[in-house]
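Friendly challenge for the regulars: who can give me the structure tokens for this chain first? No prize, just bragging rights.
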Amino acid sequence: QLVESGGGLVQPGASLRLSCAASGYTYSGYCMGWFRQAPGKAREGAAAIDSDGSTSYADSVKGRFTISKDNAKFTLYLQMNSLKPEDSAMYYCAADGPRTVAAVTSLNAQVYNYWGQGTQVTVS
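First reply, four minutes later:
Bragging rights claimed.
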């Protein structure tokens, strides 16, 4: 089970930190990621992290977002800085992705098998 939290309504330029608490499954050995979906648009990958701690980011968030995880707490994070209106979307945590972020599919939603319910981020 994946449970996201931390979303909200913020002004442009603000920061938010999303959290994803994982339970009931050991996700080690596979990528976890953050995806987002705006109304009328396809779900897109924002960031992914593998078991070694290596990360990958979409070009649209690179330099502004940071993905991290606390293995002891079974929690995934997404620190979002310098938020823009175009970052507004439902943000989803996902697990059981590829083995490594080196995979070309690390930001492809179709290869992740477990999903949270999402947390809304609105920048306005």
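The chain has a mean pLDDT of 94. The CA atoms of residues 52 and 124 lie 36 Å apart. Your move, everyone else.
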